Amino acid sequence: MAFLGEYSSQELLQGQLLLWHQSLSFFKPVALAVAKDLRIADAIHRLGGAATLPQIIAEAGINPCKLRALRRVMRVLTVSGIFTAVQQPATATAAAASGGGGTEGPVYKLTAASSLLVVGEKSSTAAAAATTKSQLPPSLSVQVQLFLDPCRGSAFSSGIRAWFRQDEHQQPAGLSPFALACDGQTIWERAERDADVFPFDDAMASDNAFLMPIVLKECGDVFRGLTSLVDVAGGLGGAASTIAAAFPDLKCTVLDLPQVIAKAPSAAGTSVQYVAGDMFQSIPPADAVFLKWILHDWNDDDCVKILKNCKQAIPPRDVGGKVIIIDMVVGSESSDNRHVETQVLFDLLVMTIDGAERDEQEWKKIFLEAGFEDYKIIPVLGVRSIIELYP
């Protein structure tokens, strides 16, 4: 819209941040409902008021395979102040036992808020003495349950809570919280079958229309000097068309599944080509591969597979080969607390489809496993960043 030209890129990104923060705030009560269902506050209380995540998992009787997911829920609850987290140095024994890299993870502690969720069960033997020294606080657990009732009935909330309660023998392997709540459908299957009530594709197209002009204005140099680029899982070509219009000599190719490419507009008279394929199988060769908001939809192993195929598609770095990623880097520098809070809330959203929003160390681990040697993060897109990844 023409009137949006009145605003700078950063003003528009700040506006997007406010809208996302308000919309995603729904996941605050979702995280609280998960913690309440799993009796996390009670587990920490029984452990003396402070505990690591493996200790909480064991005390609460949660399947150990849910540890990383629970860490993400606790990240939301610590950012919002329900719990606190203090990073502790690992002992050599603990590090070896956990396979960690120098820390055994944060120690989670009760706050006044989470203390009010403690129901007051009998303390474990290890913490019995500590528990009896102080009177239990009055529990607001039932009151909070009443206030959480509207949230608990939603598909996202019920799916993620049911997923945490299940063990590996109760559901087919790989069933995500979203699929658990939607009769086994993936988010992409639902988008295809229920486009009127679940306009996923339209939402992605609107994001391209909003973000890509800002990308080209603020960091268009990442495309300069390239002669060819493949937009992986590029849908109907919104992002590729914008790049091609800005760089007429750049040959842009969109790779997506056959059923998506069948809906693509005619490429006649443009520099955008459409190729049907599967990013998990192979990617057409080009100077650069473009992954806009793709990797956050997939778990670490799948991301490594995709990136290995990207690496095979591009030339060495010294002749310009690179992968251009647009995604979140959680915890990237910002003076606005809503910035990080929005990132970790979005992480719960993509966790429901078995995706992840990652911090720099988590990205680095994936990059190294995929065989890349270097990367550069450019944090100029609000809660998202551009990452240049080099072979």
Automatic annotation (TrEMBL):
Top-rank lineage group of the source organism: Eukaryota
GO biological process assignments: methylation
Organism the protein comes from: Sorghum bicolor (Sorghum)
Protein's UniProt name: O-methyltransferase domain-containing protein
Active site feature: H296
UniProt keyword list: Methyltransferase, S-adenosyl-L-methionine, Transferase
Domain O-methyltransferase C-terminal positions: 183-373
Gene Ontology MF terms in the entry: O-methyltransferase activity; protein dimerization activity; S-adenosylmethionine-dependent methyltransferase activity
Domain spans labelled O-methyltransferase dimerisation: 20-119
